[in-house]
Amino acid sequence: MIGFVVSEDVANLILSGIEAVHAQHSLPLFWTCGKYEVFSGVYTGLFFLPCDDEILNTPLIFSPVKKPVDYPEFDVLISMLGGLNSRVNIDPSDLVDPALV
Amino acid sequence: MAGILYIGNQLQIGSKSASAILEPETQAYLQKLQLVGVTPTLSQKTAINNWYVTGKAQGWYSSLKRFYLPIWGVAAANAICLISGLSGTFNGGVSHAAGYVQGNGSTGYFDLGVSFSSLGATVANGSILALCYSGPSATPAVMCGTFDNASQCAYLQHNAATTVIFDWNTFSTVRVTATESAASTQTGVYLVSRTAAARKIYRRRTGAYDTFTGASGVDAGAITTSNINCMRDTRSTNYSNGQYGAFGVGLGLDDTAASSLTTSTKNMWEQTTGLVLP
Fold first, then answer.
1. pTM, two decimal places
2. Exposed, middle or buried by CB within 10 Å (0-12, 13-18, 19+), for B29?
3. Are A30 and B73 a contacting pair at CB < 8 A?
4. What is the pLDDT of residue B5?
5. How many other C-beta atoms can be found within 10 angstroms of the C-beta atom of residue A95?
6. Nearest residue on chain B to A62, alpha-carbon basis
7. Which of A44, B177, B242, B251 has the fewest CB atoms within 10 Å, i.e. is most exposed?
8. pLDDT (tens digit per residue) in B222-261
């Protein structure tokens, strides 16, 4: 899965930023990329923020259709994460808590 | 032939004004949809209005605390609650198709932003509804619910290829199990209800309606306090990639209310989407 791997503090900062974008557009919070703890692999202990094509192109509202990439605030948040080239590809199994299996 | 025309919020048939006027709940929901760019057709408005009318007449509407119709193709519209007007939050990889939402099975889920506790549910009083259009490719996969611990949980789950399960408050020991054929065909309107009398799964499909009954009696423990999630276990596991056209939670329902709610939900979903529930 493609996305950013960051500390929990940075993950929370990004999610707060997404929430602020909703508020700036007078909308309730209805969408985030989500944050997911990494339990195994080289990024163990950090948090994953999904940012693949599906996330980037999620249809958010109509008239006209807007996706995350259509908001200027999106570029600001992505730049805070180091840009799209800073994304990594991790195995979905790395997000599975082994204690629950 | 008399035509049917909506003028504002009033239904007119021919030259006569009918007694049918859009319910205030319908108007409120339509206004919320309009703010995010969705304009339902006349037939969709009628179907939604009929759901509200039936619910209030049959009595189950007051027991429902949250209900979502994620059929509109955009996250903002799909997140709007038909009961409260509030919005839940979609997270991760979720596809918003015409007629349903579908998680990607690894990160996608819907957070209702509210707990069973705050909705007034108790250890002997609660319900969950999910309309599944196509089952998941792997199990276990949660349709809707929460899991705080083994004595505080409430969820409806595609458990295995041949079982759908309902645990209310207690993990496993007083479980209700519905028999199925395969994970992909675990479809229909599933309503699970906990009342003081019993725990039940009601499953409505086209041409079939089945009830599965579990044990009665009061559970130990306390009602779960975590936010209710759909398409995953709240412990961030058991993600579902099934296709879902409705979610609901609320208080416990009896057999009569369950039959009416599942029928009305099936009808509303089919009439607003043009799809046929398997």
1. 0.94
2. buried
3. no
4. 52
5. 22
6. B37
7. A44
8. 899 999 999 999 999 999 999 999 999 999 999 999 999 9
At B1, list the tokens.
């032939």
Residues 69-88 of B with CB under 8 A from A: 73-77, 79, 86-88
> Are A50 and B87 a contacting pair at CB < 8 A?
no
Q: Are strands B109-115 and B126-134 parallel, antiparallel or unpaired?
A: unpaired
Closest CA to A78 of A49, A46, A54: A49
Work out the mean pLDDT of chain B and round it to a whole number. 92
Question: Do the beta carbons of residue B244 and residue B232 sit within 8 Å?
Answer: no
Q: A75 to chain B nearest CA, in Å?
A: 18
For residue B219, name the pLDDT band (cuts at 50, 70, 90): confident
Nearest to A50 among B37, B74, B93 (CB): B93
* Helix or strand (DSSP H, E) at A9: helix A8-24
Q: Which of B38, B84, B107, B137 to mutate to test the interface with A (most CBs of A within 10 A)?
A: B107
- Give the ipTM of the model, two decimals please: 0.96
Q: Is the peptide bond before B278 cis (omega within 30 degrees of 0)?
A: no
Other CB atoms within 10 Å distance of the CB of residue B42:
11
Q: Which residues pair with A47 in a beta bridge?
A: A6, A37
